[in-house]
Amino acid sequence: MATSEFVSSAIQRQQVQRAISFEGLADRVVAQEEGVPLNTPWTFWLERSMPIATAAEVEANLEEIYTVKTVENFWGVYNNIPDASDLPLRFSYHLMRGNVKPLWEDPCNAQGGDWKFKVQKQNTTKLWKEVLLATVGEQFATSISPDDEICGVSVSIRNTNDVIQVWNRYSRFSEQASIVEKVQTLTPDIDFRATFYKPHHQHDSFEKNRP
After folding, report:
1. What molecular functions are annotated in GO for this chain (predicted)?
2. Which of 10, 12, 56, 58 has the highest CB neighbour number within 10 Å of its CB?
3. Residues 122-150 pLDDT 10s
4. What is the pTM of this model?
5. Helices 124-136 and 179-186, interaxial angle, to 10°?
6. For 130-134, which contacts have Cβ atoms below 8 Å and span 24 or more sequence positions?
7. pLDDT tens-digit series, residues 172-210
8. Helix, strand, coil in percent for the chain, rounding step 5
9. Structural domains of the chain, with CATH
């Protein structure tokens, strides 16, 4: 991507992100620090995706929203940020375990991949909520290899169908998993337009040797 295009995209991102305000969120959630602890902390992220972006450009387009550590934290954030279906086109929410960033090249993701679920827009909010609850409740743990781990989940707003993803740590264990079946049990009334798994390293823009 040319420098001028990157700057233009960054300006556009800043303009749109100002419309997606998280101002005051910490004040509304901080009072809920005590409560039922989650198994691990989880961090909400916002991303504006760009075509053919480098890892550095993707990282520059990430905004860390809040790290939740309790059930009360989670609901405090979920209920005080825009609904996924209200995000602008080509924006995404991510919920990642601990300090893991929603980057293919992150050390916790580099050997992994994700299951993708293409869903009609009227079903995005419902599916995203169910996937989030299953994630923080560690419900996917029984649907993957004992040697694998769920690193995060994402929802991406696209032109026709939106995309929800479940990220795992090791792509070599993907064939042993039953994530698709698990997600289908969460929302049996939703028909997916497509479901498939893809290792991160198979993407053309994956930067293998990125530190």
Report:
1. RNA 7-methylguanosine cap binding; translation initiation factor activity
2. 58
3. 999 999 999 999 999 999 999 999 999 99
4. 0.89
5. 120
6. 130/183, 130/186, 130/187, 131/155, 131/164, 131/166, 131/183, 131/186, 132/74, 132/78, 132/95, 134/182, 134/183, 134/186
7. 999 999 999 999 999 999 999 999 999 999 998 898 765
8. 35, 25, 35
9. 3-202 (3.30.760.10)
